[in-house]
């Protein structure tokens, strides 16, 4: 069953007696769908996985930090996203992250980004800079 949008999922958060970590309030604005989700995430937990356990269906693809389907931009707060291999350090320093490998370092508010926007931010400067060769690579000789 999918979670309803604009519902605070914190009220159904499960307490794990063996886990004595901090919990942080996380708000995700799914810009493309016009929905907002929020609930508490335990310190060190991946944000995407934690929201999915509560029924929130958010965009993702690889779950490995390599693509940019789950890209977000931080509005308030900080994330630990050192595993976001799909984003350069430069792009991460501009406030972008990947939900699948991001964990909160405190209360956090983010919004989803268009995959093309993130891709263009990261690689756009490289397009149109090189000399084009016509023909198939096997034609070179």
From TrEMBL:
GO terms assigned for molecular function: 2 iron, 2 sulfur cluster binding; metal ion binding
Phylogenetic classification of the source organism: Eukaryota, Sar, Rhizaria, Cercozoa, Imbricatea
A Pfam family per the record: Fer2
Top-level taxon: Eukaryota
TM segment ranges: none
Keywords assigned by UniProt, alphabetized: 2Fe-2S, Electron transport, Iron, Iron-sulfur, Metal-binding, Plastid, Transport
Official protein name in the record: Ferredoxin
UniProt xrefs under InterPro entries: 2Fe-2S_ferredoxin-like_sf, 2Fe-2S_ferredoxin-type, Beta-grasp_dom_sf
Family: Belongs to the 2Fe2S plant-type ferredoxin family.
Keyword Iron-sulfur: yes
Keyword NAD attached: no
Cofactor(s) needed: [2Fe-2S] cluster
């Amino acid at each position: 069953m999918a979670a309803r949008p604009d519902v605070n999922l914190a009220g159904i958060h499960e307490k794990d007696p063996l886990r004595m970590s901090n919990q942080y309030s996380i708000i995700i604005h799914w810009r493309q769908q016009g929905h907002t989700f929020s609930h508490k995430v335990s310190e060190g937990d991946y944000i995407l996985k934690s929201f999915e356990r509560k029924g929130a269906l958010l965009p993702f693809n690889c779950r490995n930090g390599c693509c940019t389907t789950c890209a977000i931009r931080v509005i308030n707060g900080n994330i630990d996203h050192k595993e976001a291999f799909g984003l350069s350090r430069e792009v991460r320093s501009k406030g972008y992250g990947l939900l699948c490998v991001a964990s909160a370092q405190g209360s956090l508010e983010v919004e989803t980004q268009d995959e093309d926007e993130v891709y263009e931010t990261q690689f756009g400067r490289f397009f149109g800079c090189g000399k084009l060769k016509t023909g198939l690579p096997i034609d070179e000789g």
